Amino acid sequence: MHEWRSDPATVQGSKMWGVIRHKTIRPSFSAFRHFSSAAKEMTVREALNTALDEEMSADPKVFLMGEEVGEYQGAYKISKGLLEKYGPDRVLDTPITEAGFAGIGVGAAYYGLKPVVEFMTFNFSMQAIDHIINSAAKSNYMSAGQISVPIVFRGPNGAAAGVGAQHSQCYASWYGSCPGLKVLSPYSSEDARGLLKAAIRDPDPVVFLENELLYGESFPVSAEVLDSSFCLPIGKAKIEREGKDVTITAYSKMVGYALKAAETLAKEGISAEVINLRSIRPLDRSTINTSVRKTNRLVTVEEGFPQHGVGAEICTSVIEESFGYLDAPVERIAGADVPMPYAANLERLAVPQVEDIVRAAKRACYRSVPLAAAA
Q1: What value, to the nearest 5°, has the Cα angle with vertex 346 and ends 345 and 352?
Q2: What is the DSSP letter of 170?
Q3: Of 131, 167, 190, 210, which residue is the catalytic one?
Q4: Has 167 been annotated as catalytic?
Q5: Strand pairing category for 206-210 and 298-301
Q6: Which residue from 7, 56, 70, 319 has the least number of CB within 10 angstroms?
Q7: Is 118 helix (H, G, I), strand (E, B) or coil?
Q8: Helix, strand, or coil (residue 227)
């Protein structure tokens, strides 16, 4: 069974499908100007909402479509206020038909519009995966560059809490393995604002993987981040915390866990460098390998399944490019290789925890207590 959802509003906006011919030229990312740091906090929800608002205001070709994005103002209130501001021609409520509205979005992108397609959860994107991959990702290549597909597929990805196996899967490695797609996964409010703006402005299809549990989290943002021209480059990771003893890579919610683990490790004399990947495809191999060549150790963290995962790709990249710098085996922390349990106690065991990261980093630094000695 799909999922219960409130009755969708009728799809409106016949004017939307005509191609808007005038062009708005804007930079793909901001030249990082120096602003005074502002002591302002913003939730990830607000960051996504303001990014959508500013991009829709700046470019009339940008429009939003999905289930409950209009009258209900978004299942997670990401699109709050947008229907009132931009009207039903540019904020379209759709029926519960992921394959249908994803296909309509791709067709609109073929003709020069810039759709932002919201999935209520990326688990439902499996209904639309044919259009995401066969219709969107492959079109530019198969048309010898004649067809551009400037579309963004966005929504919550991965595990929430108590929603069972069919609503808890991480699709980073799924979509990250597909040529023609760009795959982004923000952690902070800065990530959410800067990466969503970059995704909307990009001429290629972008899969934008948010996290439901991060929507209400607040992060400090600078005046630069709040500027309407702010945009982050796609394919560039961020070093969230510098260190010299071990490199920890993570994305989305796991970045926060990695930072907490780094704090615990610091109390025990281990200096951990935490890398927020931000971009799954393209992957910032240069930043990762540069860090490993400094720390000589690597721990990867992700919520997704371990087999064929993002961490597996990172480990392979480091072994290929920086094997001679490693002083310990690489460590992978991932979700359990099982469908997500529903029971809360089992769910916690299936998802990486801070203590798992701490133990892995200690093993990499040869600081863990051998089992025989602990007996």
Answers
A1: 100
A2: -
A3: 167
A4: yes
A5: unpaired
A6: 7
A7: strand
A8: coil
